[in-house]
């Protein structure tokens, strides 16, 4: 099935002299169990597309569906609940709570929602993250790569239908970045998640099943089974 889809998505910032068309009629869909990378030059609209597709920002026109739900039909409360229950987020900055342990960070969104994590699922995610021996550590006691693995595990904790990453390897060296990309790919292959990742790194895009190329707010190309040297 389709995990998420955009139809004729347009986003305009500002007006008059400061008017910027960040997205200009973007239609695409993200299939369940597929890992998509979104690439393009700085300022082409990658973050805006991700933020709109994830319900973090509202488009000027066009529609976003998560599963069969049209986000435009939801009030703020329902939209917040859908994001919380069905969408995971990973950003360039790890955004962990420094006073909480790795495990507490991973389960924090669920705790806030008053939900308990599924223990079996949590075990699988923690093992896949390679964090089993680090669950009692606080962020300051972890490397950048480990902190981002906590952030990915947190994104996966609620068994979300789709995980969005905005330059998830942007703050990492290539080795730690490769671990994160392997983890994201495993979450697709072994956990059946859907992942959509914004990146400017061809190596990162090489982990995806498909790459979308944006330019000036438009989808201009698409590649299946990318490799780093073909993306360059
Ligand atoms: P990318 O992620 O590809 O670098 P963005 O989606 O961040 O691109 O930005 C696309 C365009 O929209 C850019 O010209 C950017 O300056 C503009 N833009 C993004 N966010 C805002 C905003 N909140 N207000 C005004 N302009 C914005
Ligand atoms: P990225 O590195 O992901 O492209 P940016 O540096 O373009 O991110 O943007 C970071 C944040 O600033 C985003 O939330 C974006 O919406 C906002 N932003 C980007 N460009 C502008 C702008 N021209 N005016 C106001 N906000 C902007």
TrEMBL record:
Name the Pfam families on file: ABC_tran
Gene3D superfamilies reported in the protein's UniProt record: P-loop containing nucleotide triphosphate hydrolases
Instruction: List, for all copies, the residue spans of the domain called ABC transporter.
Output: 4-232
Which UniProt keywords are given for this protein, alphabetically ordered? ATP-binding, Nucleotide-binding, Transport
Fetch the SMART domains from UniProt: AAA (SM00382)
- Select a single GO molecular function from the record's annotations and give it: ATP binding
**Known PANTHER family for this protein?**
ABC TRANSPORTER RELATED (PTHR24220:SF685), IMPORT ATP-BINDING PROTEIN (PTHR24220)
Q: What is this protein called?
A: ABC transporter ATP-binding protein
- Write down the species: Kitasatospora aburaviensis
Taxonomic lineage from the root: Bacteria, Bacillati, Actinomycetota, Actinomycetes, Kitasatosporales
């Amino acid at each position: 099935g389709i995990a998420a889809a955009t139809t004729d998505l347009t986003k305009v910032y500002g007006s008059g002299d400061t008017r910027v068309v960040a997205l200009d009629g973007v239609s695409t869909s993200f299939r369940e169990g597929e890992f998509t990378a979104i690439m393009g030059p700085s300022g082409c609209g990658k973050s805006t597309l991700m933020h709109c597709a994830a319900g973090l920002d509202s488009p000027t026109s066009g529609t976003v569906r998560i599963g069969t739900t049209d986000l435009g039909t939801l009030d703020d409360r329902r939209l917040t609940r859908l994001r919380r229950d069905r969408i995971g987020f990973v950003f360039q900055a790890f955004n962990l709570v420094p006073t909480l342990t790795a495990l507490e960070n991973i389960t924090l969104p669920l705790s806030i929602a008053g939900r308990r994590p599924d223990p079996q699922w949590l075990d699988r995610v923690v093992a896949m993250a390679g964090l089993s021996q680090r669950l009692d550590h606080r962020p300051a006691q972890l490397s950048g790569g480990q902190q981002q693995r906590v952030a990915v595990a947190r994104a996966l904790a609620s068994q979300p239908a789709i995980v969005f990453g905005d330059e998830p390897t942007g703050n990492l060296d290539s080795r730690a970045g490769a671990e994160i990309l392997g983890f994201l790919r495993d979450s697709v292959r072994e956990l059946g998640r859907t992942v959509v990742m914004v990146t400017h790194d061809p190596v990162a895009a090489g982990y995806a099943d498909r790459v979308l190329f944006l330019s000036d707010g438009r989808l201009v190309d698409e590649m299946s089974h990318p490799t780093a040297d073909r993306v360059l």
